[in-house]
Amino acid sequence: MSDIRCIGIATGGGDAPGLNAVIRAATKAAILKYKWKVIGIPDGFDGLIWPEKSFELTLEKVSGILPRGGTILGTTNRGNPFQYKTGKNGKEVVRDISDQVIANAKKLGIDAIITIGGDGSQKIGHELFKKGMQIVGVPKTIDNDLSATQVTFGFDTALHTVTDAIDKIHTTAASHHRVMVVEVMGRDCGWIALKAGIAGGAHVILIPEIPFTIGHICKFIADRDKTGRDFTIVVAAEGVKLPPELKENRRASSVGNLIGNAIACRSHKEVRVIVLGHIQRGGTPSPFDRLLATRFGVAAVDLIAAGGYGMMVALHGESIVSVDVAHAIGQLKSVNPTGEVVRAARAIGIGFGD
Ligand code: F6P
């Protein structure tokens, strides 16, 4: 029998469709299956700096949130209790307030915490766990770059959004005989660009894992033109490694614009750039993400009941399993540049600018 009476739930990092579905499932399972009290911690671990802002999650509070994007708890991708930033006399001061955060969780009567987040949040959770906090993790990120789980919730919804956008861009690109550069999220890894690019019928896909040159892209476009296909859709992950001639301007403009301008200069084609941005993080979660988030939420509660602290729930094949958080945060899950998905894309003529 576990001696848990009360758990806390925190969402950290960039939001992703399905966060509310996890909060709902974990709250329901904790109350209905284990009769625990559940406390919602606002804005990631920042919420434990001001414990009075935390509030009880009841069945009523989580009713109706399953299809809602965002997170009812709020989130931040700047908060880190080990490097908490404040201002003093106009200067930035960085402090370690992790002891205060742990003490405040105790004050609230929280026995264990579910931290729903990506690489950054799981790293913070792991450090707090090493200091004695009873933590279990739920993996989240639209980028799908967290290791030790086959997939994170939020990714599938983002793929739907990007694929839909590329479908719409096709008709206008074809009508105007243009090159359309679509910049998508993926700070470090190219999963969204690769999978939505293939699903949306993109012609060129640029990802951080495969170096490219503007010359190769322009040659690809010219070859298409020669065979009467006078429009090209280029999907670029925001995290691509820019060729040397574009690198110095990286901070001045979005990578989509830099790549688009460079193509326009070299190919003399008309180019338009679309930066999809935070649209990819919004909207109602897809059925896949709702289901995965629900299973993760329930599994996280079961993991607490079993005393599996320092672990994270994960999807392996058809099953929800638990893994050591340390395995999830060691290294990001990158696209294999010679893997089956990239090879399938190349086999149908998609270019990677290399
Ligand atoms: O990690 C998810 C993500 O959407 C990245 O793809 C993107 O670079 C980042 O978050 C953007 O975060 P912010 O909310 O700070 O703009």
Description:
37% of the residues lie in helices and 19% in strands. The chain is built from eleven helices and 13 strands. It has helices at residues 19-34, 98-107, 119-130, 155-176, 191-199, 214-226, 244-247, 255-267, 287-305, 325-329, 340-347; strands at residues 6-11, 37-41, 55-56, 84-88, 91-95, 112-117, 135-139, 179-184, 204-206, 232-237, 271-275, 311-316, 319-324. The protein has a seven-stranded mixed beta sheet, with helices on both faces. Helix 4 (155-176) packs across helix 5 (191-199) and helix 6 crosses helix 8. The chain is elongated and about 70 Å long.
**Biggest β-sheet strands, sense, barrel:** 7 strands, mixed
Mean pLDDT across all amino acids: 96
Strand content: 15-25%
What fraction, in percent, of the residue positions are helical? Answer: 25-40%
Helical region count? 11
Secondary-structure blueprint of this entry?
Layout: E1 6-11, H1 19-34, E2 37-41, E3 55-56, E4 84-88, E5 91-95, H2 98-107, E6 112-117, H3 119-130, E7 135-139, H4 155-176, E8 179-184, H5 191-199, E9 204-206, H6 214-226, E10 232-237, H7 244-247, H8 255-267, E11 271-275, H9 287-305, E12 311-316, E13 319-324, H10 325-329, H11 340-347
Parallel strand pairs: 1-2, 1-6, 6-7, 7-12, 8-10, 8-11, 9-10
Antiparallel strand pairs: 2-3, 4-5, 12-13
Helix pairs in contact: 1-9, 4-5, 6-8
The protein binds 6-O-phosphono-beta-D-fructofuranose (F6P).
6-O-phosphono-beta-D-fructofuranose binds at residues 14, 77, 118, 141-143, 185-187, 238, 281.
